[in-house]
What we know:
434 Repressor (Amino-terminal Domain); Beta-Lactamase; 2 domains; five-stranded antiparallel sheet
Amino acid sequence: MLNLARPDSRRALADFVRTRRERLRPDDVGLTPGARRRTPGLRREEVAQLAGVGVTWYTWFEQGRDIQVSTHFLENLCRALRLDRAERAHLFALAQERPPPLPTAAVRTVSPPVQAMLSSLPHPAYIKTSRWDVVAWNASAATLLDDFARVPPEDRNTLWLIFAEPRFRRIMVDWEAGARRALAKFRLDHGRSRGDAAFEALVDRLTEASPEFRDWWPAQDVSDCGEGVKRIRHEAVGEIEFQHAAFVVEGAPDLRLVALTPISDRDAQRAAQAMTAPRA
């Protein structure tokens, strides 16, 4: 809950909400047009009805009065006004000075330009959701990390692979340290999920499948570090050390590009050799 106490923000918010209301017609939202309308778009009482609030309270909100607003109300207003993803983000920025909550984790795809960029990268890179489901990857990731295309979709999740897939244990140098770091970073995304059933289902699966996860999850360790060093073990060429960094995909804040870059020339040479070397 946030108090709209900044006059400039209240004015900008009022103008934005009013223009979104005025662009809609009753039949856009399943309402009967009724008698002759004196104002463009929807009436304030119609938006209030759609958002599940009182007319007076909504009128004060649209007028930019100094009132309390909640995330729940803003989400309802986004649906009532048929806001797209960019408009939703703008509304939250004006009303709460922060991005909106991440949407529910779901099976996602990436756009052709994003996939083309990903495929052009010479070193391992992949895109994951806020629940850590892998939705896109390049050839280097498939060779040096895992062939995600061969992994069942329900298991194509980096946290699941780390804790429940024996191959990941074998290729991760110092598996325990890496697994603990990953778990602390996932804890942050789990907290932002607001009890999303998909997140809870993943936690339940991991609790049943991995004794380490079962022991470490209650510790509540958390980290927001998206950069670091990852060391992998390849059967043919030995250890390869990478720096890794994560980037938000513009227009899709629940998607992150994770890119790995060899730390040294020697690591780059080994990575190149691994791309053509058969696995033992």
